[in-house]
Write a structure and sequence with these properties.
There is one protein chain. With 433 residues, the protein is mainly α. The chain has one domain (2-177, 206-407): Growth Hormone, Chain: A (Up-down Bundle). It has helices at 2-19, 25-32, 36-64, 66-86, 90-104, 108-118, 124-153, 155-176, 196-208, 210-241, 246-273, 278-298, 306-316, 319-323, 325-333, 339-368, 372-376, 378-410; strands spanning 426-427, 431-432. The chain starts with a helix and ends with a strand. The model has no long low-confidence stretch (mean pLDDT 86). A hairpin with a 3-residue loop joins β1 (426-427) and β2 (431-432). It is globular and about 65 Å long. α1 runs antiparallel to α8 (155-176). The protein has a two-stranded antiparallel sheet with strand order 1-2. The protein is built from 18 helices and 2 strands.
Length: 433
């Protein structure tokens, strides 16, 4: 548990850095003199790098192990956070967010790998949800700690000060983290002849499994509404479109994070006990999220009532735990030597959806004169795309899982007995016959 906790602490800090812009969106626009679409480029580039790194990071975890990948990740995201604090221009700040996204991309897949190495398979869903819960606690720190420091001490003090957290987790990571328990070293994934065959084989074999593809689309469809809200557009929407004071808006973002943590515990327990609950929970989350967004956007008058905004934030809190269900489809579909690659493919989904929606909202806000109702309607288009893919893949995924279950119950195929060798008879004067 202690080793896993070190990995989760790294992920905790990565989420603080990832979401720090969510409480500083308006300040970033003033500091770098940019409009809505340029502001969204910060998060867009960060997520683009993050999503693009998922498969390479999965391959790295399978080949190099967790400790090396996590160490590199800490160095990169700490440098990115510090660079963002000191950036003198918009271009430099963009480069810093890209560096941060690269380091951040190396954390969660590594933590998932630690969970599969240090805990039994039946506890996999719960450990994944607990990792996500701790990550959301990092989001809570951004809202409750970083935001007041930013408003009280200023930009450089807030972001440069938070960068020291990267150094704090780097020390125990280097000194104490181990990839697997003593005596439980897995067989390493061996590259095929020619070197490049390993990469192609890992990606090809992972993608061939319908569980991996379904995991990607579950992650794609469920994660992005809350990610978009927390990462960038939640605070501007609540302050500018809904007319709330910053303190009230920050309270609603805090409520979303707290809701995420509560849903994470519930979802992890349910799925750990009943695998059949995976799809109902994922689809129920998508439907409820869409219904609440529609209610807020079409509510008569310019602003939605507080009770409805509270309900929206509570329901958005279920999006993160629902996205973890994607890994519960990919994990059993792939052997241990492909877990990193399969997790990387799955983890791309939500971040691709978030990246697309972040950019679309920014462009629509600029095109419509900051009409948030039109801009946030893009959420429904992305959800419909993901929902169609989930429904397309669910049948073949469940059929494949039942097939594997029958194979496990049947056990290994019986071996045909090897006939005894015919005795050799020696005849004097003639040799062996």
């Amino acid at each position: 548990m202690a080793v896993w906790s070190i990995g989760v602490a790294v992920y905790f800090v990565a989420v603080i850095f990832r979401t720090s812009l969510g409480v500083a969106g308006l300040e970033a626009a003033d500091r770098f003199h940019v409009n809505a679409s340029a502001l969204s480029t910060f998060s867009l580039l960060q997520l683009l790098v993050y999503a693009g790194m998922q498969i390479p990071v999965g391959l790295m975890v399978d080949r190099l192990g967790t400790k090396r990948v996590l160490t590199l990740g800490v160095v990169l995201f700490t440098a990115g956070q510090l660079g963002f604090a000191l950036a003198p221009s918009y271009g430099t700040a963009l480069a810093a967010r890209a560096l941060l996204g690269c380091g951040d991309a190396m954390t969660f897949i590594s933590v998932l790998r630690l969970g599969t190495r240090w805990f039994p398979a039946r506890r996999g869903p719960l450990m994944a949800q607990l990792a996500g819960l701790v990550g959301m606690a990092g989001n809570l720190v951004s809202t409750l700690v970083l935001a007041p420091v930013l408003h009280g001490l200023g930009w450089v003090a807030a972001f440069a000060g938070s960068a020291t957290a990267g150094l704090l987790v780097l020390v125990p990571l280097v000194l104490f983290l181990r990839d697997h328990p003593e005596g439980c070293e897995p067989a390493p994934a061996q590259p095929a002849a020619g070197g490049g065959g390993f990469v192609r084989r890992q990606i090809r074999d992972s993608w061939r499994e319908p569980g991996t593809r379904l995991g990607l689309w579950v992650h794609f469809t469920t994660q992005f509404p809350a990610m978009v809200f927390l990462l960038l557009w939640g605070m501007p929407f609540l302050v500018e479109a809904q007319g709330l004071p910053r303190t009230t808006a920050a309270g609603l973002l805090t409520l979303l994070v707290a809701s995420h943590m509560a849903f994470g515990l519930v979802y992890g327990q349910i799925i750990g006990r009943r695998q059949s609950a995976r799809l109902p929970l994922a689809l129920g989350t998508v439907g409820t999220t869409a219904a609440l967004w529609a209610a807020v956007l079409v509510f008569p008058g310019e602003r939605a009532p507080m009770w409805l905004l509270v309900m929206l934030c509570v329901v958005l809190g279920s999006c993160g735990p629902a996205s973890m269900i994607g890994f519960d489809f990919a994990r059993p579909a792939n052997p241990a030597e492909r877990q990193g690659t399969a997790s990387g493919i799955t983890n791309m989904g939500g971040f691709l959806a978030s990246m697309t929606t972040l950019l679309t909202i920014g462009l629509l806000l600029d095109a419509t004169g900051d009409d948030y109702r039109i801009a946030f309607s893009s959420v429904f288009v992305v959800e419909l795309l993901g929902l169609a893919q989930i429904l397309r893949l669910r049948g073949r995924t469940l059929a494949r899982e039942r097939e594997r279950e029958r194979e496990r119950e049947a056990g290994p195929a019986p071996q045909r007995p090897v006939p005894a060798p015919t005795p050799v008879r020696t005849v004097p004067g003639r040799g062996a016959e």
